[in-house]
Specification:
about 525 residues, alpha+beta, seven-stranded mixed beta sheet, 8 helices, about 15% helix, about 25% strand, binds fe (ii) ion
């Protein structure tokens, strides 16, 4: 599968439209979905070969990965697919093009690695196969290493299809973002719930075909497709891309062969995400850990807290997975040998903090701030063992390194818990005099339902004074604007989740000063 790259003007400077000019293409009534460059070439064809849309990801200063997956019956073993990248939405100036083979063995997915692009600018891309043309997507390269560029991005997570509408994705698509970080639970492997908002066929996923079908269902949504077509993605997984609460090679159900399940689930994940070929899984192993540097502004660390973790402490009898336990009744919670990231990834993170740029953005899966659900006077407090609270000594190691190295601008980003949490991070959460050394924004779910009632969060606030915000009754995502001086966060919330045409509003705003860790309400 050779990638032919055009050298035509790939390195020549091309004037980019100012931000106001770009908005012209993205705003407007039907928002997101009816933008001009999303017009579909395949519409009207008997069989839509691009029914799952397109996406881009892994932006670097000189390139980006372009993704699609061919659809429809009677696809051969190998299908030739052409792609092209242009500096304008009309494709008058094509700066890179190439050919890929979409193979049945990899679900006819395409992962084209466009290279030789200019840093810090918008590009448009499209595919052609079997006489059809895909929708047009817009993507962006990372700024050059010496660039003073600012950053606009969003975090999103937990988009269970059968429990809600992708209203939040319409808002993402119209937000003119440099990238969208998806922090896990892109699909849910579970069988459809009772009385679903939208149907999901096929029962609980175990086989490769079932996982592939699940991605196809999720990716059929036009709002999700529009969001992917509007900006590149940085993606990591959580548990539901494989199975609820899995840890390394242990699942909730100890009788299931997790090595086999992980292998097919990881394969389907790679097939449907804009990852390069170098990340393609080998059996049950796939490395998604990585870093992206954003000019002189930020280093983004992408972590994997599923593949390498120790099993959860003190599970329910005969089961794997999470539990809620009292600290004093579960000595394993205090065992410093247990890790959430695995020893190798933990060391990789500790060695790779950026001490020069003002921001270190940590894109990972779940809530890092300590949350005890009961007064710590009762049995030492009550903790959920699947999150960082189940691996408190590893969390302390991570945060102690941040404190010791005086790592600038550490902002931990997460998802998983279907709630908006904004928090101060301290090395010692039990000591209010312990300095705030980092900030946390754990974004709520796109659709997935809350596991914890709001009343319980409200009740627990007094034991967790480092939580600045905690709402399980909000669906949406979090949008950020970052410059060298401050990071501004907007918690975007779907006003009426039952209504697919609902407004999306800003429920709260926070600011983090680059020189002073800890989010402040704005
Ligand atoms: Fe989730």
């Amino acid at each position: 599968m050779s990638i032919a790259r055009s050298t035509t003007s790939a390195c020549e400077p091309v004037a980019i439209a100012p931000r106001v000019g770009r908005r012209r293409f993205l705003s407007g009534a039907a928002a997101a979905i009816a933008v001009p460059w999303l017009a579909r070439g395949a519409r009207g064809a008997d069989i839509d070969r691009f029914a799952l849309g397109i996406a881009s990801g892994q932006p670097r200063a000189d390139g980006v990965v372009l993704w699609t997956r061919l659809t429809g019956d009677a696809l051969g073993e190998r299908i030739a697919v052409q792609w092209e990248v242009a500096s304008d939405e009309r494709f008058a100036d094509v700066v890179a093009r190439g050919d890929e083979l979409a193979e049945a063995a990899w679900a006819h997915s395409v992962h084209a690695e466009a290279a030789g692009l200019a840093p810090g600018r918008w590009y448009w891309y499209r595919f052609r196969a079997l006489g059809q043309q895909s929708a047009v997507g817009r993507t962006r390269t990372a700024p050059a290493a010496d660039s003073a560029a600012t950053l606009r991005f969003a975090i999103a997570s937990c988009q269970r299809f059968d429990v809600g509408h992708y209203t939040a994705w319409r808002d993402v698509a119209s937000s003119s973002l440099d990238f969208v970080a998806f922090l896990g639970d892109y699909i849910y492997e579970s069988a459809e719930r009772k009385n679903p908002v939208r149907g999901v066929a096929g029962g609980e996923a175990f086989s490769l075909e079932q996982y592939r079908a699940r991605y196809a269902t999720y990716k059929s949504d036009p709002a999700l497709q529009a969001a992917h077509a509007a900006a590149p993605g940085l993606v990591v997984w959580d548990d539901h891309e494989v199975s609820n609460d899995y840890a390394g090679f242990r699942g909730e159900n100890l009788a299931v062969d997790m090595r086999a399940r992980r292998a097919v689930a990881y394969r389907a994940y790679w097939e449907h995400m804009p990852f390069p070929r170098s990340v393609r899984p080998l059996d049950a192993d796939m490395r998604i850990t990585g870093r992206v540097d954003w000019g002189r502004l930020a280093r983004i660390h992408l972590l994997d807290d599923r593949q390498y973790r120790d099993p959860q402490a003190c599970p329910k009898p005969g089961r794997g997975g999470s539990n809620n336990v009292l600290l004093n009744q579960c000595p394993a919670l205090a065992d410093p040998a247990r890790t959430l990231l695995g020893a190798e990834q933990e060391a990789w993170l500790a060695a790779g903090w950026d001490l020069e740029r003002p921001w270190n953005l940590v894109a990972q899966q779940t809530l890092m701030a300590r949350v005890t659900w009961l007064d710590p006077a009762v049995g030492g407090g009550a903790y959920w063992t699947d999150g960082w609270d189940g691996y408190a000594p590893a969390r302390r190691r991570l945060l102690a390194t941040v404190a010791a190295k005086k790592v600038p601008g550490v902002v931990v980003l997460g998802g998983d818990v279907h709630s908006n949490y904004v928090a101060d991070l301290r090395v010692d959460f039990d000591d209010e005099r312990s300095a705030v050394i980092a900030s946390e924004f754990c974004g709520t779910s796109i659709t997935s339902l809350p596991g914890v009632p709001q009343a319980r969060i409200d009740q627990a606030r007094e034991y967790n004074p480092h939580l600045r915000y905690g709402r399980s009754d909000e669906r949406g995502y979090v949008r950020f604007e970052v410059d060298a001086r401050e990071l501004r966060a907007s918690l975007r919330v779907v006003e009426r989740p039952a209504d697919p045409d609902s407004n999306v509003v800003t429920a709260a705003r926070f600011v983090v000063d680059a020189a002073q860790p800890g989010p402040r309400a704005a």
